[in-house]
Design a protein that fits this description.
CATH topology of the largest domain in chain A: Tetracycline Repressor, domain 2
Helix content of chain A: over 70%
Largest interface: A-B, 43 and 43 residues
CATH architecture of the largest domain in chain A: Orthogonal Bundle
Shape of chain A: elongated
Order of helices and strands of chain A: HHHHHHHHH
Oligomer: homodimer
Structural class of chain A: mainly alpha
Chain lengths: 203, 203
DNA sequence: GCGATAACCGTACGGCTATACCGTATAGCC
DNA sequence: GGCTATACGGTATAGCCGTACGGTTATCGC
């Protein structure tokens, strides 16, 4: 959408109704026809990009499941999708981050932000539960602290990578993040999968 | 400063030169006398609040060192200072986050953001090195990946706590974060300090 | 075919903003 | 005493923004 294009190219402040209309190649009046106010437009854009990222991750996870990969590896691939390791994910991160910044003041945006984060956390918790069933995770482990930790690590690593895209102290970002993510997952997924019914992972 | 007060009370968009002057009880002209442009004013405010937080953490760490606590525990206290677990830290987090959001578009703000993060990471890395010297950390461990991981966990946990201040699934935020931080530190600080018996500091 | 509804454009307007500018006063220095 | 720099207040202005509004074309059920 035009809003995201403007944000990633010229920053959030550059997003005006007139400019958005120009970017999309339509008139101001038509924008108003679809969105009564500017806030409504921004909310829609945030929702749009959030679900877009989410679907991309879901697709990646589905692919991993169909290849019958271990849950830990599927999860690692999904979480890596949130790290700004290439240009695409980097602009995506910029846009998401800009919206999250505004969400501090606009409750409607905050709701989307919180809901997105909650959904991600719930997905991770479900993956841990699945891991318990198939033997990758110890049976008497509470999935939620692990989910919070893994979600936090993903968020935090994304920030670190964004700020230092070239890595730290000569260690490339890709190696750094993948080794950290593997270690974090290894703290929870300690065993190997016995058998696993992939149908349970579907939403 | 008046800028931070406005941000935390009314959001970043409410920060105008006129309103800032009114909040500070001075005239617009005087603000212009000190800061040639609004951006300059914001940059100064960001720098101000960043160093303020940093000094608070440093004080906390210094206190821990003087009490001869294990490095891991000193570090835990310092990192917890960045989590929005009470009203003070929450508004501080809001302000820092608002600036970080603008930093996506304003290079001068981004520089402060990056520099602050780098300094925190360097401090953690130094703590790990100190841990190696005194026996809390294995001698042949690279401090930087550990520092990146711990910094990322802190950032990420702060986000989680901000979004869900009451915790997750009935687990209070304070317990959740402290157990996660302890586990993360425990992954690096595996030994006990030779010089001091840390058992009396343990719960 | 025709009325209604939706898609679409252009512009006018009131409000807010950053900032340039001018005026004053106070304090330090020669 | 004068002179200059700094501290401070008030205001004018040009520009941009969101949004209201009136007009035009296209679509479609009946």
């Amino acid at each position: 959408m035009a809003v995201c294009e403007l944000i990633s190219n010229n920053g959030f402040d550059a997003v005006t109704v007139a400019r958005t209309a120009a970017t999309a190649g339509i008139s101001v009046g038509l924008v108003q026809h679809y969105f009564r106010t500017k806030d409504e437009m921004l909310l829609h854009a945030f929702h749009h990009v959030s679900t877009h990222v989410r679907h991309r991750i879901d697709k990646r996870i589905q692919a991993g499941i169909e290849h019958r990969r271990p849950i830990a590896r599927v999860l690692a691939a999904g979480m890596a999708e949130l790290l700004p390791l290439d240009a695409t994910r980097r602009t995506e991160f910029r846009v998401m981050r800009a919206f999250a910044g505004r969400a501090l003041d606009v409750p409607a945006l905050a709701e989307v932000d919180i809901e997105t984060a909650r959904a991600l956390r719930a997905d991770i918790a479900r993956a841990v539960r699945n891991g318990k069933e198939c033997g990758e995770v110890e049976p008497d482990l509470d999935p939620w602290p692990a989910a919070v930790r893994l979600a936090a690590v993903t968020d935090g690593l994304a920030l670190q990578v964004y700020r230092d895209p070239d890595g730290v102290q000569g260690i490339p970002a890709k190696e750094l993040t993948s080794s950290i993510l593997d270690a974090e997952l290894g703290a929870t997924f300690t065993g190997q999968c016995r058998q696993y019914d992939s149908r349970k992972d579907r939403p």
